[in-house]
């Protein structure tokens, strides 16, 4: 069997159901992995079994991270939250990644969650807390680039990309404010907002703010999924 990747499920509050964007699964499959959508749960017994089964974990997009995770109160501009996801991801990240050194890739909410869990903070709403001329929340179609990202030299992403900047799509209203001590920035938007990070102590942990799952025909998106799976 190929590399088994556990994919954090998306949650539809209105329909009270789990769902998934096919791009996450397709991107992993094309990179040679066997992706599987996880059950949404905070049962440590179940989560321990999940962790033992999978080789790595994809932390997907979705609802806003509960600000209490980074010591803040939820303000009026913070969107819908999913406490079950916060609990599930906290357990998986701490046990699978920090304790067992399994690889992880965070996308959109994923980069925000990882930063918050490791002690960083977030902008609960970019338009009101970090005004910018850059479009961070574009309208469909999402496979069209929205803005430039500057890749920092001497970072793993720079080595993978082989260039100093890329064009990315963008669909988020929250973002990293104070970077967690355990993370290093790999890329920033032209307005300074953090767009990619990694963990030097766990170098197989990467996270990006944009959405490679929406732009699988893009060479850089393919490289990100392939790097994670490999």
3D architecture notes:
The chain has a nine-stranded mixed sheet with strand order 4-1-5-6-13-12-11-8-9, sandwiched between helices. It contains seven helices and 13 strands. It has a single domain, classed as Rossmann fold, CATH 3.40.50.880. Helix 2 packs across helix 3. The chain is 29% helix and 24% strand. The chain has 230 residues and is of the alpha/beta class. Strand 5, helix 3 and strand 6 form a beta-alpha-beta unit.
Write the SSE topology:
Layout (H helix, E strand, L loop, with lengths): L2 E5 L2 E3 L4 E3 L2 H9 L2 E5 L6 H10 L2 E4 L23 H17 L4 E4 L1 H9 L4 E2 L2 H4 L17 E5 L4 H6 L3 E4 L6 E2 L7 E6 L4 E6 L2 E7 L10 H11 L1
Parallel strand pairs: 1-4, 1-5, 5-6, 6-13
Antiparallel strand pairs: 2-3, 7-10, 8-9, 8-11, 11-12, 12-13
Helix pairs in contact: 2-3
Helix content: 25-40%
CATH architecture tag? 3-Layer(aba) Sandwich
Query: What is the terminal separation in angstroms?
Result: 14 Å
Largest sheet: 9 strands, mixed
> CATH top level?
Alpha Beta
Q: Count of DSSP helices? A: 7
Please give the order of strands in the largest beta sheet. 4-1-5-6-13-12-11-8-9
Q: The CATH topology is what?
A: Rossmann fold
Stretches where pLDDT falls below 50 for ≥5 residues? none
Q: What gross morphology would you assign? A: globular
Whole-number average pLDDT? 98
What is the structural class? alpha/beta
Radius of gyration: 16 Å
According to DSSP, the number of beta strands is: 13
The H/E string reads EEEHEHEHEHEHEHEEEEEH
What fraction of residues sit in β-strands?
Answer: 15-25%
Tell me the domain tally.
1
According to CATH, the homologous superfamily is: Class I glutamine amidotransferase (GATase) domain
């Amino acid at each position: 069997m190929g590399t088994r990747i556990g994919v954090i499920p998306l949650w539809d509050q209105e329909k009270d159901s789990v769902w998934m964007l096919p791009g996450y699964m397709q991107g992993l499959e094309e990179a040679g992995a066997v992706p599987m959508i996880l059950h949404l749960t905070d049962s440590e017994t179940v989560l321990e079994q999940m962790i033992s089964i999978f080789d790595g974990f994809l932390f997907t997009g979705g609802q806003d991270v509960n600000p209490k995770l980074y010591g803040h109160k939820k303000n009026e501009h913070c969107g819908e939250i999913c406490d079950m996801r916060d609990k599930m991801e906290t357990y998986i990240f701490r046990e699978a990644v920090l304790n067992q050194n399994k690889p992880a890739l965070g996308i959109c909410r994923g980069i925000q969650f990882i930063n918050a869990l490791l002690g960083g903070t977030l902008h609960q709403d970019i338009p009101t807390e970090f005004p910018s001329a850059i479009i961070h929340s574009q309208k469909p179609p999402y496979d069209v680039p929205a803005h430039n990202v500057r890749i920092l030299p001497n970072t793993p992403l720079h080595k993978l990309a082989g260039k100093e900047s890329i064009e990315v799509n963008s669909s988020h209203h929250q973002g990293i404010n104070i970077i967690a001590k355990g993370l290093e920035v790999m890329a920033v938007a032209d307005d300074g907002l953090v767009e990619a990070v990694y963990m030097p102590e766990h170098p197989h942990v990467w996270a990006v703010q944009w959405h490679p799952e929406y732009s699988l025909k893009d060479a850089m998106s393919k490289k990100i999924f392939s790097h994670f799976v490999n």
